Amino acid sequence: MSLETMTKLSSTTVGVGGTSTVTFSNISQNYTDLKILISARTSDGNTGTIARLKFNGSTTGYSSVYAQGRGDSVATGTGATTAGDIGRFPGVNSPVTDNVFSNTEINIPNYTGYVYKTYTVDCTTEANQTIAYLIIASGLWSNPDPITSIDISSSAGTISENSTFTLYGIKNAAKTAGNSIKATGGNIVFDGTYVYHTFTSSGTFSTTAPIPAADVFAFAGGGGAGSAQGGGNGAGGGGAGGYLTSLTSFPSGASGTITIGAGGAAGPGVNAAGSGFGTNGTNGNTTTFGFGSFTLAPAGGGGGGRDNGSSGFTGTSGASGGGGAGSSGSGGSVSPSSQGNAGGAGSGTRGGGGGGAGAAGVSGATSGNGGAGVGIWYNGTTTYFAGGGGAGARGTTAGSGGIGGGGNGKANDEGAGNNGDRNTGGGGGAGGSSPTSSNYYEGGSGGSGIVIIRYKA
Known about the structure:
With 457 residues, the chain is mostly beta strands. It is 1% helix and 33% strand.
């Protein structure tokens, strides 16, 4: 279960001449915690100059405790100062040489809450000598105001050129979503609007509260690509796994079982008798989601057609049909209906692309590209699934996999086709053919399926 997201909010690299202070201002209040990563040095002549921070420009209310090792000594201490101590920045004098920096990590939890603010520090100064600081510290700012700016400076000298400071915001979905997470199962993420339960392997979805409206997206395994005879023409790309979606509701305290369909195997380069004719790719496997009377069960994508050197075989029917092999193979049809698109027909020395959930596979006479998949809003962006596999070719450019995980096909003697991407339902790309009869390149296998359950926070 993944419930945390970390976003880079700001980054500064100190320029020529250095600077006295690095400031992060107008800090977003849309996160739960802050993290600062620092690589820095100073112009001061000491081996390690105290580094400090201020919140909101304040010069009161700071206290800290620390433990320090230096290679030749150890120390502990406490302090109450006009700024918070955050370790040390190395200076310019021996034994610390030029171009040596500190590595510092600062963590600031609950920075927006109306409570006193705490922080922790892990700091080490690089050195090629025995004297190098290793410091762990914790600090308190006795002020309940939310943190909106942070100043970082050195107690002596200026912060040197090429020092870097990066601020990250951390959003904990369990805290940010509050009571919005209403179920268990799968990988759970929250993008500020939706909660997502993502199943990349079989599992159980169990509700802990009623969910009045949930989008369910289910993708089956993609079909494997066909193989081509040596000296023949290109084979067909695998069809994408079937796609079904539904808007439904779920009661509290109930469970459903999810089975993720595996991708289909590619047709081998030679058949069991050792001949170079090979076989069509294997269809992908069905993905199922059953929750009481609610069921989604998209079928697997069709396998790509194989080439026998004189006439290409038809792509296999599936939720999206497999592409036909070069010369004359027809694209596979859609079965069952309304889960995908047909495969493209083979033509000449290039096969047809496998069908995608969003578009039919393209004929070998045009490009042999796999059909495009479908895009859904997933974790803050539009993500595509179930693209068809690209066709193989002899002597011409092969077909590309369709957007949404379709594997690329290969051209003349380029080798085996690419597999469809895992957990996309993408079809496999067909392998390249060969101008001679001695090389037989198999296709790629189909990508496994996925189930995504999405509901609003």
